[in-house]
Amino acid sequence: MERLDFADIRHRVKLRRDAGDERLFENRDAVACPVCGDPFDEALASTNRTCQLSPGPEVDVCLVREDDRLVVFTHA
Q1: Which of 5, 12, 43 lies closest to 28 in space, CA to CA?
Q2: Which end of the chain lies in a sparser environment, N or C, as judged by fewer CB atoms within 10 Å?
Q3: pTM for the full model?
Q4: Is 35 exposed, middle or buried (0-12, 13-18, 19+ CB in 10 A)?
Q5: Percent over 70 (pLDDT), the chain
């Protein structure tokens, strides 16, 4: 699986939050999730060792573990 480079798709997603070690993106143009192929709603890219999420009961989650980060894709 190829690494998803958010800089390459910056015109298709909106950066909602940048905390340095965590960045949250909103999908604005039906970018496909690299895990399931369906468009994701949001993506959280984190270089933190730990991360706590509370996406809600009606949200599916896909995960991609890369060498230097974890990317969480949500589908509502």
Answers
A1: 12
A2: N
A3: 0.89
A4: middle
A5: 99
